[in-house]
Amino acid sequence: MQKAKDLTADIPEADKKTAIVMGSEIGKVADGTMLQSEMIETAGGINPAKDVPVTQTWAIVGTEELFGWDPDFIFVTSSTTNEYTPEEILNDAAWANVSAVKSGNVTLVPSVLDSWEFPGVGSALGALWMISEMYPDKLSEADFNAIVAEFYKTVYNIEVTPEILGY
After folding, report:
1. Are 20 and 49 in contact (CB under 8 A)?
2. Is the pLDDT of residue 45 over 90?
3. Model pTM?
4. DSSP output for the chain
């Protein structure tokens, strides 16, 4: 996580990308009390859902509020209980004017082996992955892949590739 903070420390506030993490249903968003919000901020982003009142895990907001935030990126959890896919959002005409949809930046958070947006050691990779998505000039795909390979070798003593991890 410190590496992620170091990579994004010099991004001016005015240049920060906005991003939300959506849960298993459209409208379920990571509010400011959740790890996923911290990941966005650690990755140099701004979570417009940060101040949504907390009434339950995964705050629920309407699509009007989501559209009003007009996030640059929508990160979708890799939960097996998801009721939608990023492709459904990307292909839904109702979402066509949302910046993340216009730029094709609605993506499933990897990985197949472990959830990078779920609390655990893999969430550090999730924050770095967000940087590579939002600020590829700060963390190239090749550099990110090297970090991921080193992480899995060090932590689990396994060799991985992007294909094995599903990204």
Report:
1. yes
2. yes
3. 0.93
4. -HHHHHHHTT--GGGPPBEEEE-SSTTEE--TTSHHHHHHHHTT-B-TTTTS--SSSSEE--HHHHHHH--SEEEE---TT-SS-HHHHHT-GGGTTSHHHHTT-EEEPP-SSS-TTSSSTTHHHHHHHHHHHH-TTTS-HHHHHHHHHHHHHHHH-----HHHHT-
